[in-house]
Amino acid sequence: NAGVTQTPKFQVLKTGQSMTLQCAQDMNHNSMYWYRQDPGMGLRLIYYSASEGTTDKGEVPNGYNVSRLNKREFSLRLESAAPSQTSVYFCASKLTGTGVYQGKLFFGSGTQLSVL
Amino acid sequence: KQEVTQIPAALSVPEGENLVLNCSFTDSAIYNLQWFRQDPGKGLTSLLLIQSSQREQTSGRLNASLDKSSGRSTLYIAASQPGDSATYLCAVSRNYGQNFVFGPGTRLSVLP
């Protein structure tokens, strides 16, 4: 199994450009998440989707939009990139319900984004 | 607002030592707590998951304990190895397991 797959791995944008980060999971998980990780700030939740068809804001949603395309895919869009959005972005997924794996977060390998 | 802290921020030990990493959280109304490992330039890997009704979880040389009333969790690593060198993060959740809040991590170096 591939687990959680993110694309691209690296991206450089100019201020004002737009882009979409893609995330897909093959573990039949209900919930999916987008985090950003910054030095000294730790991991912060941008948006999450508790189930297919629903999305909710996290701690730092400004400047981002998300789409839960289907159960497998959850994309993050930057409409007009700003230097403050330079960060490492992680997608994660989780199975909800009962059982030993319930609640365990699985992460992708991350996208290093630089906005100049 | 839930806040998670981890002490120490960095730790360097010789190979073979047993060590303890600490995680504290301000709101005891958690659903579960997870410990993760992150290698440089990589994503996070879940090590142990403790539900709010549990006191501890064990996996190999790792043991995590949870004391909800005091807002603390510890990760015990037995007989440390150079391959254990990484950053270790804890995260707590509420709202039926949504909305995880992460600590800043402890950077561990195990010297051969």
Question: Summary?
Answer:
The complex is a heterodimer of chains A (116) and B (112). With 116 residues, chain A is mainly beta. Helices cover 0% and strands 51% of the residues of chain A.
Describe this structure in words.
- The complex is a heterodimer of chains A (116) and B (112).
- With 116 residues, chain A is mainly β.
- In chain A, 0% of the residues lie in helices and 51% in strands.
- Chain A has no helices and eleven strands.
- Chain A starts with a strand and ends with a strand.
- The model of chain A has no long low-confidence stretch (mean pLDDT 92).
- In chain B, β6 and β7 form a beta hairpin.
- Chain B has 112 residues and is mainly β.
- Classes of the chains: A mainly beta (116), B mainly beta (112).
- At the A-B interface, β4, β5, β9 and β10 of A face β4, β5, β9 and β10 of B.
Which terms would index this structure?
heterodimer; A: about 120 residues; mainly beta; seven-stranded mixed β-sheet; four-stranded antiparallel β-sheet; about 0% helix; B: about 110 residues; six-stranded mixed β-sheet; five-stranded antiparallel β-sheet; globular
Please mark out the parts of chain A with pLDDT under 50 across 5 or more consecutive residues, or reply none: none
Main pleated-sheet profile of chain A: 7 strands, mixed
Strand content of chain A is over 45%
Biggest sheet overview of chain B: 6 strands, mixed
Set out the fold topology.
The complex is a heterodimer of chains A (116) and B (112).
Chain A (H helix, E strand, L loop, with lengths): L3 E4 L2 E4 L5 E7 L5 E8 L3 E8 L6 E2 L6 E5 L5 E5 L8 E8 L10 E3 L3 E5 L1
Parallel strand pairs in A: 2-11
Antiparallel strand pairs in A: 1-3, 3-8, 4-5, 4-9, 5-6, 7-8, 9-10, 9-11
Chain B lengths: L3 E4 L2 E5 L4 E7 L6 E7 L5 E8 L4 E4 L2 E6 L4 E6 L8 E9 L3 E5 L3 E6 L1
Parallel strand pairs in B: 2-11
Antiparallel strand pairs in B: 1-3, 3-8, 4-5, 4-9, 6-7, 7-8, 9-10, 9-11
